[in-house]
Amino acid sequence: MSLTSCNPIKDYAPASKPQITEANMSSWSEKLNADLSGAMDGSTMKKYRREAYHRVFVNRSLAMEKIKCFGFDMDYTLAVYKSPEYESLGFDLTVEHLISIGYPQELGSFVYDPMFPTRGLIFDTSHGNLLKVDAYGNILVCAHGFNFMRGPEIREQYPNKFIQRDDTERFHILNTLFNLPETYLFACLVDFFTNCPRYTSCETGFKDGDLFMSFKSMFQDVRDAVDWVHYKGSLKEKTLENLEIYVVKEPKLPLLLSRMNEVGKVFLVTNSDYKYTNKIMTYMFDFAHGPQPGSPPRPWQTYFDMVVVDARKPLFFSEGTVLRQVDKTTGHLKIGTHTGPLQHGIVYSGGSSDIMGDLLGTKGKDILYIGDHIFGDILKSKKRQGWRTFLVIPELAQELHVWTDKSTLFEELQSLDVFLAELYKHLDSSSNERPDISAIQRRIKKVTHDMDMCYGMMGSLFRSGSRQTLFASQVMRYADLYAASFINLLYYPFSYLFRAAHVLMPHESTVEHSHVDINDVESPMATRNRSTSTVDVKDTEFKWHHLTRSVSEIKPPNLFPQTPQEITHCHDEDDDEEEEE
């Protein structure tokens, strides 16, 4: 039975593996050669793909059989918080705290709106704007409170619609799912103070009589309030009191982890404390049976070779902290530093990725780390430790829904591009004719806007029209794999080769694969060719004839480089020869 048609638990029995012999290897090879020959002859051979909502997407190729250790974050990775319920809770508690320190009572009327915020926005502490930018700092969307600013308004504050992203004192990126409530709260506060008659708007903040509040101080107040709610307030308490309301319970989780246990080691690294972690994980593994129907239920800790709480990521990926043991009865830390080998059943606190790698006996590319935090989980583990990375992007389900359900909008944009090209088809630099493309331009903008609004008020997490967002560029740069949920790994064998698709430049994606003779180009300015030459420069007599100095009888050991006859160039992330057995 195909995995794509299975019931959640009962039909996930592992399929028997075919025995590979010289005989059937030969038959597979012959079949592959025949299929490839048919494709070359013009017959269609469509690549098999899993259902979109089961897919794992690939930025850099990764051979699963090389992975010896699977690592997990907890919050928003293993433990997925329900949206918008959890964001609404965080929003309400943060507003309550702001009111308690002196902010206007009217703020209590605001209700979290999940259609407004998206991840990856930047808050400008000078002008109080929320910005959606691309990888280079070009502004794609700008909102002052609930007011979405148009081009001329944006240019008044940002010449050329551009920001210096490296000015981190002024521009703060809101990249995590935990940031969504405060992202919307920034918009609520700015809109309230801008439109409330008691306050006077200034360029960098608001005035109330002799009192002045800058956007920067407002930003700091909100950040402090969010931290208070998370670490000292009642967010965790209310979450634990209502786990069914706020936490997703995934029935396939024990099965996937048990299968990972069969092929490698598994660890958990979370910034949460032990008491909170234990209650969340106990709830998530509270089923009537174990990984398979009929098997006894197992405590959540038995699925992990190592559990680390209080990790303090991203510090965990550099110098880290002292590695200590947790008393699982009281939740308190035991006195002293942990020494010696890894002990199963022990919960650790703190430490570092280096210490953990030594205890597990793995490092670098042996580890596939799965998390939701583009900075704290993915970027730091990739850059500092060389781990392979899997980014969980829950919003991807909605993105794929729009991509498929609103395909007519994408098709119309493509048709408009074709129509635009047709208008210029027979025109060159000698033409005085100026086609009227204003109607097409207006329609392109309208269709693109309609497409953006299908995702939410801020548009897609990954793009604005044809331009990719900063968040999208970070995903492509740091995440080897990404998916809406790590559970999607259940639909792939652990021998699978995740192969990255070709990333095409415009001269590749818009030019068909028809033969173009380089000698047919019209301009002599476009004749640089590295593959052929009318003169054989490797001819020794030619070389010597063109030397401007006297030539001795002593010759260099190699007069010319030789074209590589073996595979020496790196074409993929996972094709290093020294890693192959």
List low-pLDDT spans. Answer: 1-18, 577-581
What distance separates the N and C termini? 33 Å
The shape, in one word, is globular
Our estimate of the beta-strand percent is 5-15%
Percent helix: 25-40%
Please give the count of helices.
Answer: 17
Overall average pLDDT: 88
Overall structural class, as computed from helix and strand content, comes to alpha/beta
Count of DSSP E strands?
A: 21
Radius of gyration over C-alpha positions, nearest whole angstrom: 29 Å
What does the model show?
- By secondary structure, the protein is of the alpha/beta class.
- The protein is 33% helix and 13% strand.
- The protein contains 17 helices and 21 strands.
- The chain has helices at 22-40, 85-100, 151-157, 180-195, 215-231, 235-241, 243-246, 253-263, 274-284, 353-360, 374-385, 396-405, 407-423, 438-455, 470-478, 506-509, 540-545, and strands spanning 57-58, 62-63, 69-72, 121-124, 129-133, 139-144, 147-148, 171-174, 200-201, 205-208, 211-214, 265-269, 306-309, 323-325, 347-350, 367-371, 388-392, 463-464, 467-468, 481-483, 497-498.
- It has a nine-stranded mixed β-sheet with strand order 1-20-17-16-3-12-13-15-14, sandwiched between helices. It has a five-stranded antiparallel β-sheet with strand order 7-6-5-4-8, covered by helices on one side.
- Strand 5 (129-133) and strand 6 (139-144) form a beta hairpin.
- The longest helix is centred in the N-terminal third of the chain and has 19 residues, at 22-40.
- The chain is globular, with a radius of gyration of 29 Å.
